[in-house]
Design brief:
alpha+beta; 6-stranded mixed beta sheet
């Protein structure tokens, strides 16, 4: 469970929330609109370091909402929500302080990241500036934990605090301090061994954060939430077995994730919640717990699920739109006809309604991959169950409650259910905004920014708008130029200048 890796802490109650550092990031946690990705324009892929793109600026984030009710807000760790403008930075999106990285991955010790050849830079920040003073080779998991301990040690536990810890682990590159490998010498596969070592270090870090909550007087009035945003990557040591697929796909192995809530304030402790819960639910749940306000005119995709988790009540959620990506590679055999004229099944999408899950288009890598603990062979030699998608296939239907491993496709047996879910997809899609996935901006190169990844973008109007003094100088030069041209046109006239 501690393989989850973004940690939120809030006190007033103290709320700690932990999630994976993989795709889609924390967007749904910090910021919640109508239906997650399709109403932000971020429904395709991730935000690349060189793209002029970031979390939309026109909606309130979770830390901004918590600040409204007196919370101190701090972020430690990985942002990965865009930084091309200063307004996109964590300190402009509701956090009082920020210590961490802006990109999605990087070296755990040097904090450098190369996005492509010649596009490399330093990526460690203290608020809005590069944290060069911390370029001393400390492993990021341990470095971030030390900062969390410092924040808690200096904060008055009688005052509310929201602390978001986005650990870099266990994302690639697979790196860990040597002593954490000692217990995993029996794991032959090197990636799996490194992953296990990274996870042990992360487990120790979460323990140290929990101890700090107790030491500094936060624990008894705290809520610690661990959540995740996607499944593991088998090629980088992860495992989703026995679920199908992997990170970046719409199969359960890519989208189903473990999570837990730990708090002295829970009414039903030690219970397992099997209700439908989505990552977007944390936004209204945490705001409600903090006694904050959500504008009633804003229709959120998320639901307040605290009573579901704490008391075992039924979830208010009946469906989840996993995503609709209109620009992902289209399924060659998809069509409107295959979607009964309701939906173009060439489009990559996935939706869950109660027990049913529907996928269309190209769902992504679809194998079942056992843990590679006892094999050091390459991915082409793995003992996975390879699946060749049936010719002409672009629609799948599963009863996820009965078949969480997605082994029995029921789309041909229940065409009525398929049509119902396709109509729901269509309804969601009518409210989607256009995808924002801009091309690479060469101005993003860290070489142009002192060797650091950071904001680079300036509005064109601001770039072209001259200052008052520049405008005056330009006007004087223009007048002088016209005067010279006039004199050249009339060489015998010298405008008030006598010749000696």
């Amino acid at each position: 469970m501690i393989q989850l890796s973004h940690s939120y802490v809030t006190t007033g109650k103290t709320i700690t929330l932990t999630t994976w550092t993989f795709v889609r990031k924390v967007m749904s946690l910090l910021f919640n609109t109508l239906s997650g990705l399709i109403h932000t324009g971020l429904q395709h892929s991730i935000i690349r370091p060189t793209q002029p793109n970031c979390l939309p600026l026109d909606n309130a984030t979770l830390p901004q909402k918590l600040k409204e009710v007196g919370y101190s807000t701090h972020m430690v760790g990985k942002w990965h929500l865009g930084f091309y403008r200063k307004e996109c930075m964590p300190t402009k999106r509701g956090f009082d302080t920020f210590f961490g990285s802006l990109l999605g991955s990087g070296d755990y010790y040097t904090h450098y990241k190369c996005d492509s050849p010649g596009m490399c830079g330093y990526d460690l920040y203290e608020n809005d500036n590069a944290a060069w003073d911390y370029d001393n080779g400390i492993y990021s998991t341990q470095m971030y934990t030390q900062r969390v301990q410092q924040i808690l040690a200096s904060h008055d536990p009688r005052k509310p605090i929201f602390l978001y810890i986005a650990y870099q682990a266990v994302h690639s590159p697979l790196q860990a301090p040597g002593r954490y490998f000692e217990h995993y010498r029996s794991i032959v596969n090197i990636n799996r061994r490194r992953y296990a070592a990274m996870l042990s270090c992360l487990d120790e870090a979460i323990n140290n954060v929990t101890l700090a909550l107790k030491t500094y007087g936060f624990y008894n009035n705290s809520i610690i939430i661990y959540s995740s945003d996607n499944g593991g990557q088998p090629t980088a040591g992860g495992s989703n077995w026995p679920l199908r697929g992997s990170k970046g796909t719409y199969w359960e192995g890519g989208i189903r994730a473990v999570g837990f809530v730990h708090s002295p304030l829970l009414k039903n402790k030690g219970s397992v919640c099997k209700e439908l819960v989505h990552i977007t639910d944390w936004y209204p749940t945490l705001i409600s717990l903090a006694e904050g306000q959500i504008d009633e005119s804003i229709q959120l995709d998320g639901y307040d699920v605290w009573e579901t988790i704490s008391e075992g009540l039924r979830s208010p959620r009946v469906d989840i739109l996993h995503n609709i990506d209109p620009i992902y590679t289209k399924a060659k055999n998809g069509s409107w006809a295959a979607g009964y004229g309701i939906w173009n099944t060439a489009i990559q999408s996935a939706i869950r309604v109660q027990h049913w899950k529907l996928l269309t288009g190209n769902p992504g890598y679809s194998d079942w991959v056992p843990p590679q603990s006892f094999s050091n062979l390459g991915p082409n030699r793995w003992h996975n169950e390879r699946i060749t998608l049936s010719t002409g296939k672009s629609v799948w239907l599963f009863n996820i409650t009965a078949d969480p491993y997605e082994r029995v496709d029921l789309s041909s047996r229940y065409p009525g259910i398929v049509k119902q879910l396709l109509r729901r997809l269509s309804q969601f899609n009518k409210t989607a905004v256009p995808v924002r996935y801009p091309p690479k901006d060469p101005r993003s190169n860290p070489r142009l920014n002192g060797g650091v990844w950071g904001p680079w973008y300036k509005e064109e109007s601001k770039q072209q708008k001259p200052s008052k003094k520049k405008a005056e100088r330009k006007q004087r030069k223009s007048k002088a130029k016209k005067k010279q041209q006039k004199e050249r046109s009339f060489p015998n006239c010298h405008s008030g200048i006598s010749r000696g």
